[in-house]
């Protein structure tokens, strides 16, 4: 299966602190890949480096065969991105932000179709600020899909949402997965990762601890659920 993302020996420093430490990973076309770590241990920085949003000291990155640092404009026609914090202009309406984002791309999707798909079409003239948490997160995924991307990056998409809103977003992502879209996501919710991801990479202090399928990662641990298996991997790392 063709690789969509290839990261080799990626190393990123903040001053004297190593944020990403000689990281290697690949993501295959049509795969849902999860990058997991404790808070502040490198995953958001890794995404920023993969997208060319931050420079790095060593290594190489290719996304859809493109170098994100040297050819960012071409890359951003092919990927969708939902970063950890999204903010919008004051009082902007749903239809207005969709129109603004569409204007950035040569061949944008019809956002009216996306609004219907995400069950947000009734909010076309609604201020974004007055949407619920789940509706805002669905809108952030919708906006990331406007360029008709081949790869979708989602950084802690459901953090802060209640259970019902998280389930709504899960359903959206499950449908995208069925359509064959490649998803690269981070999350602190292991139940979410277990439902959505094909493979995961667990990192700590920016270096890889293990990369495997979710069932195999659970099988090689003494536990039956991903959450306990994840904690077991982290504890084994601390013991070493």
TrEMBL record:
<dbReference type="Pfam" id="PF00005">
    <property type="entry name" value="ABC_tran"/>
</dbReference>
<dbReference type="GO" id="GO:0016887">
    <property type="term" value="F:ATP hydrolysis activity"/>
</dbReference>
<keyword id="KW-0813">Transport</keyword>
<dbReference type="InterPro" id="IPR003593">
    <property type="entry name" value="AAA+_ATPase"/>
</dbReference>
<dbReference type="GO" id="GO:0005524">
    <property type="term" value="F:ATP binding"/>
</dbReference>
<protein>
    <submittedName>
        <fullName>Putative ABC transport system ATP-binding protein</fullName>
    </submittedName>
</protein>
<dbReference type="InterPro" id="IPR050763">
    <property type="entry name" value="ABC_transporter_ATP-binding"/>
</dbReference>
<dbReference type="InterPro" id="IPR017871">
    <property type="entry name" value="ABC_transporter-like_CS"/>
</dbReference>
<feature type="domain" description="ABC transporter">
    <location>
        <begin position="5"/>
        <end position="230"/>
    </location>
</feature>
<keyword id="KW-0067">ATP-binding</keyword>
<keyword id="KW-0547">Nucleotide-binding</keyword>
<comment type="similarity">
    <text>Belongs to the ABC transporter superfamily.</text>
</comment>
<dbReference type="InterPro" id="IPR027417">
    <property type="entry name" value="P-loop_NTPase"/>
</dbReference>
<dbReference type="InterPro" id="IPR003439">
    <property type="entry name" value="ABC_transporter-like_ATP-bd"/>
</dbReference>
């Amino acid at each position: 299966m063709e690789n969509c993302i290839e990261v080799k020996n990626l190393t990123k420093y903040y001053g004297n602190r190593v944020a990403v430490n000689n990281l290697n990973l690949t993501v295959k076309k049509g795969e849902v890949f999860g990058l997991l770590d404790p808070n502040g241990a490198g995953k958001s920085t890794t995404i920023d480096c993969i997208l060319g949003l931050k420079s790095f000291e060593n290594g190489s990155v290719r996304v859809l065969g493109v170098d994100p640092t040297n050819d960012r404009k071409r890359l951003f026609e092919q990927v969708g991105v939902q970063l950890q914090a999204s903010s919008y202009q004051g009082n902007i309406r749903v239809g207005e932000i969709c129109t603004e984002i569409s204007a950035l791309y040569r061949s944008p999707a019809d956002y009216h179709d996306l609004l219907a798909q995400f069950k947000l079409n009734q909010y076309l003239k609604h201020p974004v600020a007055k949407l619920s948490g789940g509706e805002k997160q669905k809108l952030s995924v919708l906006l990331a899909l406007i360029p008709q991307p081949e790869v979708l990056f989602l950084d802690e998409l459901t953090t802060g949402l209640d259970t019902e809103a998280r389930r709504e977003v899960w359903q959206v992502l499950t449908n995208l997965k069925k359509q064959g879209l490649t998803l690269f996501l981070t999350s602190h919710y292991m139940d979410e990762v277990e439902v959505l991801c094909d493979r995961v990479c667990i990192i700590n202090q920016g270096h890889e601890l293990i990369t495997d399928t979710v069932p195999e990662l659970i099988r090689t641990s003494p536990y039956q659920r991903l959450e306990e298996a994840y904690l077991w991997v982290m504890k084994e790392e601390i013991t070493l």
